[in-house]
Every structure is written in C-alpha cells, then in structure tokens.
Amino acid sequence: MATQHENYSPVSITKRVSVFPKSPLPPQLLRLSNLDRQCPILMYLVFFYNPSGKILSGDSVFGSLKSSLEATLSVWFPAAGRLSLNPNDGKLDLWCNNGGAILVEAVTQVRISDLGDLKEYNEFHEKLVFKPAFNGNFSDMPLLVAQVTRFGCGGYSIGVGTSHSLFDGPAVFDFLSAWASNTTMVGSTGLDLRRQHNPVPVPVHDRATLLSCMRRQPASPSSGRNPSSSSRVAAIEHLYQLIKQAAASDWNHVSDGKKLTQMGSSSQDNFVLKTFHLSVSMIESLKRKILGEKRGSLSCSSFEVVAAHLWKARTKALGLRKERMVCLQFAVDTRNKMMPPLPPGFSGNAYVLASIALSAGELEEESHERLIQRIKEAKNSVTAEYVCGYMEALEAPQTSLPPIKELTLVSDWTRMPFHKVNFIHGEASFVSPLVPPISQVAYFMHSPTENKSVDLRIGLLPQTLTAFSHYFLTSMQ
Predict the structure, then answer these.
(1) How many CA atoms lie within 13 A of 251 on its CB side?
(2) Residues 213-233: pLDDT tens digits?
(3) Is 368 a known active-site residue?
C-alpha cells in the first residue's frame, strides 16, 4: 500500500526487554465498557526526530526511555496489564497484573531524509514498530509496545503501539505526554517545562460512569438481531442500512459469480494512503467560497467545513448512482456529554460516531452550507441517551466490518498535537499513523509545519485518487 521498502537497508533489532511499573500495585480487575471492546488491537504511531547538534548514544536514549516508562507505568498501570475474557459473560476486561510492556531497540543505516516526505505513508514505516505475534490468547498479548530506532544520520524514530481497548486518542496523547515528561533527555526548552503551564492530567482509569450507563440500558432481545431497534442512534441505524444495501447489490450479482463476502467494496489492501496538507490559507479560501458574505453571521469550525467538502468530493469521485445511500460518520468525544460528565483525565474510550445519511443525488445537490448545518445537528444529537443506546447496540456479537465505499469516516486529531510530544530533543518532525483497521478513514491531524493547518490522511481506491484530488483541492486554490 504505497511506497515500497525493498531498496532500503534492513532494520536490525539489537535489544528487547520487558518494562514493569517501578512501583507496582496489587493486581486488580478493571471492567471495560463496550466502547473499549470494539477494537482490541494495537494502534501504531511513529515519531520521527531529526538529528540534533548534540550526539545521543543509543544506550542513553534507550535507557532514558526505559526508566521513564517504568515511572509512567506506576501511574498508568493498566498499560502494563493484559486483556482477559470474563468467564461470566465471555467479554473482554482488563487484568491489571503488572505483566509489563515491551521496549525494543533497533538500528538501521537508512537516513531519515532517504524516506522522502514523511507526511506520506511509506511501507518502511512498518519496520519501525514492534509487532508481537498474536496466538489467539489475549492474556499473552502486551497492551503497550515501543521500538526506538537509530538512523544512519543520527536521528531517531520511536514507534509506539497501544491497545485500542486501553486508550482512545486523547488518552493516548496524555499517556505519551506523561511518558515524555518523565524522560531525562528533555532539555531546558523541552516538554517538561511546557507542562508546568499545561500539566498532564492525573489519569482516571475507572469506567464507572459508562458501566452504569450500560446497566441502565440492558440489551433487549431484539437489539442483537436488528440494530435499528436502538432508537435515536443514527450511526447504528445508518450502518445497518448500508450493509443491507451492499448485500442487496451483491445478491443482484450472484449470477455473475460474485461472492457475498465481497460485500460493498474492495479489500483493505486495495486502498492507497494519501496525505493532503491543508494550509491556513487553503482552509480560509474554502470558507470564503462556501460561505461568502455569510461568514460573519454563520459560525463554523474548520473541521465542519473541511468534512462537508471531503464528503462531497469523495462521493463524487466514486461516481455512485444517484439513488445510492451514502453516509458521513465522524467521531464525537462524549467526555462532556455524559451525565455526570466523565472525570478530567479519563483514560478509556469515550468516542462514539455521529452520522448523516443522504442519497448520492441529494448530496450532490446539497449546498456546503446546509451540510455544515447537518454536521452541527449530528454533533448535538450525541447525548448521554445516545451514548447509552450506542453501547446497547454493541452488546450484539461483533464482526469485522467490510470496507463499504458509500461510507465516509472521519476522525479529528487536531486537538492532539502528537508532534509536540518530546521524547528526545524537541518536537518531532512528523508523527505518522500506520495503516488503520479501516483504511478509508480520513484523519485530520495537527500539522507540525504551520499552526492551525491540517494534514489530512485518507485511504482511497486507486481508481478514484486523481478524481478525488481534483474535486477536493479545486475549491481550496
């Protein structure tokens, strides 16, 4: 998927250790919510740090990261635990047993500059993270892995994998910031001094509020069979309709030998990851063209404007029939939506999907202004009741979602400036996510090159790349 790595020098692992909390707590069971159980796999980020004037030995970097991780795990102790199947209901919970994280040291003769534009996904990035083998037993699988790689130029990368059952995006950012703030390599201008003004919140690992929501909303007999029974949960209802639409289309092609397992779209491997840099001037240009004289009276965020434009451009590039149902779904943080709100520093998963559905023809005719209003309405529809209904729907048996081309998925990371996490000597030159479980997700990332600019990473079908680039970028020139 994108740039190959055959011509690069190999990455050699020189050390692998288990890292345990410096001050371990007695083992304890942490009950997970259904939001935690959705995707119990490791999600990876790779931090790139260009060489600095000060020469740092591999031993000093590895030793500092190890000792600081030991201190961090004493507070963020679930990250040293293991997932465990609850014998009473067969669901995943978290056994905080001090099982430890994995830290790996590696070297390569490749120079960071050899990788080209770090914004663009490169298959070589996959060599910069440690991927433990999964034998089907969750109790053997670490929830936190990290690999520090020294490049031939003297620069470093730090590839971190965290279980999505542990943390959502904001919690990952807080955890990595806490780890970085404990390192001894940070200088007088490092993250430790900045955190005096913006301290890492004390983590709250308990999921009590979300678990009480689940107890208030027990799964009905029909909820596992027909997700549309979860009232007012648009994301579940729309996804159910998209799956039915895809299945109906496949039935129409059975005579042509098409398998039902090919439902909806292409396999994950067929997507190309592409990153678009959206400067402040480009976003402002889009706002002017969309809103015109109404800019002063109509309040909207950059996310709302770009998400609306992205949905129209992606759907147009797909060339769908006008009667096809299409859907925009985007992640909404529920920390302040719950009653009572989740506590500051909540470290679990707190995101649900908001959703908008139209026909492809309606979307083509709909103005950007009206789409922005629909996005606002979808955001506001996410209430505590919505979250409880969402988790009720997740009581049904979960299966892997095939790529459905009519579904546009968006995740906003702009409030999580990962490049500011100072593991070594200043900000990272770039932080690259690896291939996500659903390749078509569009990530809005805080750009390290310009304040308030956005790096948009999205998975596209190869045959739509040129058309999407044209439709998406034209209004921003």
Answers:
(1) 6
(2) 876 654 443 334 344 334 579
(3) no
